[in-house]
Amino acid sequence: MSGIYDDPELYQLACAYRDIPTEADALLDWAGRHYGGAQAGPRSVLELAAGPADHARELARRGLSATALDINAAMCAWALDRAARDGLALDVVEADMRDFKLPAQFDLAITMLNSACHLFTLDDMVSHLAAVAEHVVAGGLYIMELTHPADYLSSASRTSSEWTIEADGVTAQVRWGGPLDAIDPVTQITRESVHISVRKADGTIRTVTDVVPNRFWTATEVTAAIKLASASSGGFTIAATYGDFDATTKVDDPEAWRLILVLRRDA
Ligand SMILES: C[S@@+](CC[C@H](N)C(=O)[O-])C[C@H]1O[C@@H](n2cnc3c(N)ncnc32)[C@H](O)[C@@H]1O
Predict the structure, then answer these.
(1) Are residues 44 and 162 in the same domain?
(2) Same-domain check for residues 253 and 135
């Protein structure tokens, strides 16, 4: 059975509300502030659970040596094709972010748009952090963009679960989760209902309906997982946290809508 991640074109349209160049600016700004590696800043990036690899491709455009990793073959093919079309060098690896082995270390690793929600258990998160640590140079960074826990733990969500994208004659109507999708209080997993309908300029309509399991993580839980993971490999320390794609919004500000963790690989 195919789902939303088997349809990279629809997925990318659904998520086109993001301003990728601005998010890449923020990633590079945070890297400049917190990078502790040998040279002035990061020269290589590994995007995990990369999907279409928008951020890896944007960073490749800015001169970083970029690698994208995803478990889904269709996403990997799409990322590779997009990079080739734009004349960008991008290595793409089909692998599981919980346990992977690449022949290189990177200055910067990133996981965008809450893709760590696909780590469903503490064991998954620990094994993921240990694998990432092995692939980040000493002083290098791992930046995780997570959903702000207020979306799950408070009565007022800080993000919207329904939106419309209009671009180049294409209209995409998206519903991704929402108040009717209950969290399992034991596992912290929400089986999020996803419905995307795209109307192209020629009038054709395509829809995808899916249920995507999503585990939310708090900073406290990730901190505990970092400690557990560092017992098996060199660890990470949380160097900074941010509540938005800028340097000023704090995670506990009322307007914060993301939980962004900047982890630094211990020397
Ligand atoms: C919400 S999408 C995000 C894609 C991308 N990070 C972005 O910003 O658009 C989540 C991605 O995680 C991938 N994924 C899920 N479980 C994974 C795993 N265990 N290892 C690697 N990738 C995984 C899916 O195939 C999908 O492409």
Answers:
(1) no
(2) yes
Cα 70 to ligand 1 centroid, rounded to whole Å: 6
pLDDT single digits (tens) 51-93: 999 999 999 999 999 999 999 999 999 999 999 999 999 999 9
pLDDT digits (tens, 9 = 90+) for 85-116: 999 999 999 999 999 999 999 999 999 999 99
Task: Using the atom order of ligand 1, give the atom closest to the CA of residue 114.
Answer: 1
Q: Is the CB of 235 under 6 A from ligand 1?
A: no
- Residue numbers of the domain that contains 248: 4-148+217-265
Q: What is the pTM of this model?
A: 0.96
Give the count of domains, the chain.
2
Does the beta carbon of 108 sit less than 6 angstroms from any atom of ligand 1? no
- Around 48, how many Cα atoms within 13 Å sit in the side-chain half-sphere? 29
98 CB less than 6 Å from ligand 1? yes
Domain boundary (214, 230, 248) is at 214
261, 143 contact by CB (below 8 A): yes
